[in-house]
Amino acid sequence: MSEENDLIYGVHPVTEALNNPRRKLVGLKASKNAADRLADEIGRARVPFEIVHPRELDRRLGDDAVHQGLLLEAKPLAQPRLDQIEKSGIIVLLDQVTDPHNVGAILRTCAAFRVTALVTTARHSPEGSGVLYKAASGAYEHVPYVKVTNLSRAMAELKDYGFRIAGLDSEAPGLLQDLDPAPPLAVVMGAEGKGLRQLTRDSCDQLVRLDLNGPIRSLNVSNACAVALYALTR
After folding, report:
1. Domain boundaries in the chain?
2. Mean pLDDT lowest for which of 24-28, 128-132, 137-141?
3. What is the rounded distance in angstroms from the CA atom of residue 222 to the CA atom of residue 90?
4. Are 107 and 12 in contact (CB under 8 A)?
5. DSSP tag of 208
6. What is the model's pLDDT at position 126?
7. From the CA atom positions of the chain, what is the Rg in Å?
8. What is the DSSP string of 147-165?
9. pLDDT recorded at residue 127
10. How far apart, in whole angstroms, are the C-alpha atoms of residue 203 and residue 65?
11. Is residue 13 pLDDT above 70, yes or no?
């Protein structure tokens, strides 16, 4: 297996990758039970596969990886440029969110709400990894995952394409519920603890906050993303 390729494990991520016609599949290692479970998908995808003992996947991925008897190697997906992103909905931008579990969960939420792209920086963001794919539970196959060199420049470029950009900030004066959800709209979310960087804040058209009335006024970034997208699309 090549480190240049995507290594995808777990039932849902592997199933979605096998069903994705844009994926170029290299090979699959599967336990007998897992191969039987996905026999139809494996047959349709015509992917070369090898039956292995689950312990071989433990050795390859580590004891903490919940691989469910499946490890797929595939070529990385081609991702769009900013000017190729659909303008018919909402896109989400991440400002230095580095935890692959959080980014994977955000991808899953984005797929649930038909977000047209997730944009993050090439630095200070997780590489495509089995952990991210597993947390995304197959959503990586459905949501364009666009990496840019400089977030503030990318925001300026998106404005040129007609996007309005709103930053989610727990201290913002405006409320998310008052934000016009009409597309094209981009919502920017910052890392836990640090929030949005000052340059990112300055690059937003407006800053808004979730209307939380409990004693804790901030959420985990993936939870905040889910609440915000629900409010904007309900």
Report:
1. 6-74, 82-233
2. 128-132
3. 16
4. no
5. E
6. 64
7. 19
8. EES-HHHHHHHHHHTT-EE
9. 63
10. 39
11. yes
Q: Which residues of 45-59 are buried (b: 16+ CB within 10 A; e: fewer)?
A: bebebeebebeebee
Contact 34, 28 (CB under 8 A): no
* 85/16 Cα distance (integer angstroms): 22
Q: pTM of the entire structure? A: 0.90
**Largest Cα–Cα distance in the chain?**
57
The topology under which CATH files domain 82-233 is Alpha/beta knot (3.40.1280)
Distances 80 to 58, 62, 77, 116, 144 between C-alpha atoms, Å = 34, 32, 10, 11, 7
pLDDT tens-digit map of 203-220? 999 999 999 888 887 789
pLDDT digits (tens, 9 = 90+) for 93-112: 999 998 999 999 999 999 99
Fold agreement (6-74, 82-233): no
For the chain, how many residues are written?
Answer: 234
Residue labelled with tokens 């400089």: 150
Pick the CATH number of 6-74 from 3.30.1330.30, 3.40.50.2300, 3.40.190.10, 3.40.50.2000: 3.30.1330.30
